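Usage

Read records sequentially. Each one opens with the input sequence:
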Amino acid sequence: MSDHGRMRVPTLAPAYVGGVQLIAYASRRLLGERARHDLLRSCSTNADNLSQGRYGTLATSAVLVEAPMELPYALLLLAVLGYAEYARGAWWAAGVFLLGHVGATLLVYGGLRAGRPSPATRAALDVGTSYGFHAVLGALTSALPHGRLRGGARIALLALAARPLLRPGRTFTDAGHCAALGLGLGVAMAVDYRSVRNR
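and closes with the structure output:
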């Protein structure tokens, strides 16, 4: 059977989601609250760490969460990443995830540097899977049928991501989610363009 006809069974997505949950439960069980907080802070992509050249946090922050993911979100993350791996391949899914995670983080960091964030914001815990999730979700709109459904889904996702930015208590993370979704939608539109050219 050719590669095109072979069914892809997602393996990277379950390993990633399971690994994040395992690390979260293990760190909560094995580390004291203070030690766990220090670990999360040292692995965060906050403005303090990045301004000091700790770019390794761009990797470590993607495998740590402040608390074990709630089951509905963990299942949704697994479904989105798993479908991306099934539909487009593991490298594509991982690449889009990393684009969203790293790209949105650096865009937010650039915005914070341009402004005057408070010391609490500069040192905030900034770990998790959500930037990568938003990017992959946006990129997967290219798998929807052409026409109103695809366009409507993109508008709806943008509206949902932008809504928190309009509230008084918005955070830099809200901006990061919007940026990550925008990066994912950019990937989707590039896929659209390529498919039109290949017709």
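Summary fields computed downstream for this record:
- The chain has a mean pLDDT of 91.
- The first helix runs from residue 12 to 30.
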